[in-house]
Structure formats: structure tokens, C-alpha cells
Amino acid sequence: MKCTEAHPNLAAFVLGGLEAEEAAEVRYHLDFCPGCQRQLEELRKVNRALEAAPPPAAPPAYLKGGSFLAFAPSNYPLQTR
Amino acid sequence: MTNLDGPGVEAALSKLYDRYSRTVFGVGLRILGDRSMAEELVQEVFLKVWRSSGTFDSARGSFSTWLYRVTRSVALDLYRKRAHRVRPVSDGDPYLGSARDPSAGPQEVVDESWLSWRVSRALEMLDAPHREVIDLAYFGGLSQREISERTGVPLGTVKTRTASAYKSLRKELAVQAISQEIIR
After folding, report:
1. CA–CA dist A55, A53 (Å, integer)
2. ipTM above 0.90, yes or no
3. Model's pTM, two decimal places?
4. Dmax of chain A from CA atoms?
């Protein structure tokens, strides 16, 4: 495997998403390629950062409507009565 | 930032809400660990954005950074409120009644919230196809082949999107790290 073949697979490799045979080929290439090893380390940093990611969830739709009730003209903060 | 005074205020806030509410909600879930409190956080944050938009100064950092500060402040208030809510019944003992929640302290809440914010914003910057592969691969634990089968996207494209998404995340997280100093 050449670098040009390994590169597109490195992110998937870090994610553990390659088939066993592909993963073995990438691992073999990494043993002899310092450039791809550096690339891999950068991708691992992204993986570690993702551990802090919030769960992929959106607030319930009704919340937007509720939030925006507060923005009605009668509630304008700068308005004096 | 969009002007939050005058007749266009609702449209401007709606746009900001669409762009940032997932991040505020997600960070709320992560820190407060409670769905109803995360919802409360979203409402309080956008109310505060509307009321305090005059304090945003683009010379001091991006809107995202300013919004993070607002979110952090509201999350800390809610965190303390929650600690107050879960206070045990003290049988008249005021010392027991004011005992602190033994879980993470406010400083830990702040530290964790900034990292969560950065990662969430980086994820939100991905377009839908790239976000999808990250959601399925990282959060869903699917292999590249399984993603291809589930989405009908060719395996080679899934791999390219995964690599491209990681490249974008790396770049975005590096950019956001620069603004960390502004927050401290």
C-alpha cells in the first residue's frame, strides 16, 4: 500500500471502521511510513476531542416557539411603561 | 452579528437560534445531564442574547465566543440552582441543608463546557453529508461498509467523506483553539 492509498483510509482506521484486511494493510504501511504516522497522530487528536462532543441531539421544536414568546414587543427590555 | 434592535429582531433571533441552539442544548445536556435543564438553558440563553446583545463587542472575539460566555454563565447558574434543588431535607440542620453537591464543582463544569462547545461548533460547521458519516461512524459505531449499506452511498465516497470530515474538524478545532485565550 502506498501513501496515496493509505491516506483516505486513515480516518476510518482511527475510527475502527475498516474491514480487518484493510486495517491490516494500513497497519503494515504505518510501520514503515513516518509521514502517515504523523498524520495518524493528528487524526487521533480529533478522535480524542470528539470524546467531549455533546450527544447529537436537537432541542425539541416547541422550545423555539416558547423562547420566542418572550421576544414579543410587549416584553422588549428597553421599553419603558 | 445581526442587529437585535428594532422590527427585525424576531427574524434575527430566529436565525441565531437555528444556527446555535443545537450547540447550546448539547452542551447543556453534557454538563447538566438533564434534558429539562438543558431546555431551560436554551431558553435562558436566547433570552439573555436578546437582552444583552449590546454587550457583544466584535473586537473582543467572535459571536460564537461571546455566546459561549453567555451559555457558560447561564449553565453555572442552573448548575447551582440544581445543587440547591437536590439539597437533602435537613431536619432543621442548616449545615446539612447547605451541603454542596458532591459531584463535579463549578470550575470543572466551566472547563468541560468550553471543550464541548468547541467540538460541537466544529461538528456544526460540517455540511450534512459529512456530518452524517461522523454521526454514523463515531456516535453510531458503524463501519464504513455498514454506513455505505445504510445510506446507499458508495463505499469509496463514504471513505472520502470520512477523511474530509476529519480534516475539516482538525482545521476547525485548531482555529477555535486560538480564541481560547480570549475567553480566559
Report:
1. 6
2. no
3. 0.75
4. 75
Comparing A16-30, A56-70, B28-42, B55-69, the range with the smallest average pLDDT is A56-70
> Which residue's entry shows cell 453555572?
B76
Nearest CA distance, B183 vs chain A (angstrom): 18
Q: Which three cell numbers stand for residue B157?
A: 465516497
Q: Which residue has the cell 434534558?
A: B35
pLDDT in tens, B78-127: 888 877 665 444 444 443 333 334 456 666 666 678 888 999 999 999 99
Contact map slice: B 3-62 vs A, CB within 8 A = 5, 9-10, 13-14, 17, 21-27, 29-30, 38-39, 42-43, 46-47, 50-51
Q: Is the dihedral of CA B145, A11, B64, B111 positive or negative?
A: positive
Nearest CA in chain A to B111: A52
Chain B: residue nearest A68 by CA? B10
| Residue A78, C-beta contacts closer than 8 angstroms, at least 6 positions apart | B5
